[in-house]
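Continuing the series of single-chain predictions for the mutant panel. This is the parent chain; the variants come on the following pages.
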Amino acid sequence: MITDIISFGEPLFEFNQAKGVESGPDYLSGFGGDASNLACSAARQGASVAMLAHLGADVFGDKFVEL
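Parent structure:
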């Protein structure tokens, strides 16, 4: 696989408080971290991107792999 950019670092899974939510979770989840932000931004601009990171064998690591 040939890529334009290889981003490496720690991706972050973030929880943000949801305001005005009557039912359901009182937080919103999302992705962050400079390495994953760079990878996502470059991919949205059309670059072929790979990410090198260590992920846990849990639901958060699985979500990053899906992303």
